[in-house]
Amino acid sequence: MAELIIHLYTNLGDYLSFSPSSFLKNTIFYNPPKKEHNFGSWHELQDGLMENIFRRLNLIDRVRFGGVCKSWRSLVMQKHVRAAPQPPWLLLPHGRNCKSLSFFSICEGVVYDIKVAEAAKGGWCIGSSRGWLIMASGTEYEPEVFLFNPFSGVRHNLPSLTTIFPSFFDYVDAARDPQRFASFIDKIEVLSSDPSECIVAATFSRSKVLAFCKPGDKEWSVWEGINDQQRHYYLDIIFCEDTLCALVGMEEVEGGFESYTTCMKLGNREVMVKVIPHIVHVFDHAINDDFEIGDQDSGFVEEEGSKFNLVESDGELLMVVNVVDVHFTEFGESEEEDEDDEEEGWGWGPVLWEFVYYKTRTFEVFKIGTVPFTRVRSVGDKMLFVSQGESLSVSAADFKGFSGNLIYFLEHNDYSFEDFDPKVSRESGVFYLDDERIERSFPSTLPKQCRMCWLTPHPWLDEKLNV
Asked: How far apart are CA 18 and CA 1, in angstroms?
């Protein structure tokens, strides 16, 4: 109304010389000028507001977010800006020389295929840690191991396995299939997702070796912290802040040792190592062989052994134990005895098996801190993800539709030294701690395929995005 009054006042002379046409045109059909609203541009939003939006985005939306413009891309690169929490992705089974890697998001129920960058072609996955895939390529004569970010395509080489001498060559000589040389690596753990701050620790199959390196080093540095005369092997390792915690399996013999922390020099860096001994009981191999298949003896061994994973959860260190049974058929005895197994006390004796299958029986969780370790019957709202790669704890309260007190587990068995592979393995799924129920709901795997593992994606590693 005020605008109309002003309009009439400024055109008073026209109205005093009244003309119907001018009156209708200028008054009855008068439309006030439209206001122009300046909303600004997206790239001009305040940094605090953009960071607030970014924190609410899942991984895929973050990658798309970084592809909009340079200013948004720079925000993705800022490592101090934390994104929304999310469960890890599951790397699905894949073969060597695959053209893409498939990841399953349990939060979205979607499979994402990511093209393998040129830097990793010909490689296959053997583990994961801190957003990096641990990849292997080459042959048993020229093995290559490297860190690889599937989102950025960045690769960082690790020293050759041949520098773990003579353990690597002993493993290749004893393995039924030398082309599966990468199974020599039991676990690789990375201190930081930032390569400039990164220290890599590794343990190896059928070996007492714990070794360290930095990306780009030419050889592994073997830690000599435990007396060679002591019967031991490494069950699992994990970095807790700046300290590597090493769970060491030992027989219950005189001369054992208590947990201790020591320091190792790695170039101009120091690595703190906390050794945590754990008594591993050697089972009497209670074989149930009440039935036969043809002319072959068949049966299974109850609770033959265990697989161990260390998980950090709310500042506490947990030991997750996967108790397994062995199903088998045997068809004779070897003429050669495995002297190493007999000496160490871990062996089965000179038995040839035609078929072997390791089946998960149950899981047990212990809190490390007191001796003996404290059995934990519930982990509250936590979801524990365990594998030969990254193992971690996530709060179910952060995700709609999820419940806690669960263990998501992946295939953890190595058939490299068995006479025959099982045709398929279904030892991946979900374990419910409240009623000890197992759901084998994840894809089946073939033993010769690459390892499945959990990956917490970090698309901004090395400040490069592949969008």
From this structure: 21
Q: Which amino acid is at 317?
A: L
From CA 144, how far away is CA 138, in angstroms rounded? Answer: 6
Q: Which residues pair with 271 in a beta bridge?
A: 264
Which segments of 132-271 does DSSP mark as H helices, in order? 167-174
Closest CA to 217 of 298, 168, 161: 161
- Bridge partners (DSSP) listed for residue 104: 90, 111
Please write the tens of the pLDDT for every residue from 85-118. Answer: 788 999 998 888 889 999 999 888 899 999 999 9
**What b-and-e string marks burial along 217-241, b requiring 16 or more CB atoms within 10 Å of the CB?**
beebbebeebeeeebbbbbbbbbee
pTM for this entry:
0.80
Contact 363/433 with Cβ under 8 angstroms? yes
Sequence-ordered list of residues with C-beta below 8 angstroms from that of 42, at least 6 positions apart, any chain: 68, 69, 72
Q: Which amino acid is at 371?
A: V
pLDDT value at residue 57: 78
CB 210 within 8 A of CB 237: yes
What's the token pair of residue 266?
């790695």
b/e sequence 72-90, b meaning 16+ C-beta within 10 Å: bbebbeeeeeebeebbbbb
Dump pLDDT digits (tens) for 355-404. Answer: 778 889 999 999 998 778 999 999 999 999 999 899 999 999 988 889 99
**β pairing state of 232-240 and 243-250:** antiparallel
What gap in Å lies between CA 192 and CA 88, rounded to an integer? 17
Q: Please state, in angstroms and rounded to a whole number, the distance separating the CA atoms of residues 38 and 428.
A: 55
Residue 429 corresponds to which amino acid? G
One-character DSSP codes across 13-57: HHHHT--HHHHIIIIIT--PPPPPP----GGGS-HHHHHHHHTT-
DSSP annotation string for 343-358: HHT----SEEEEEEEE
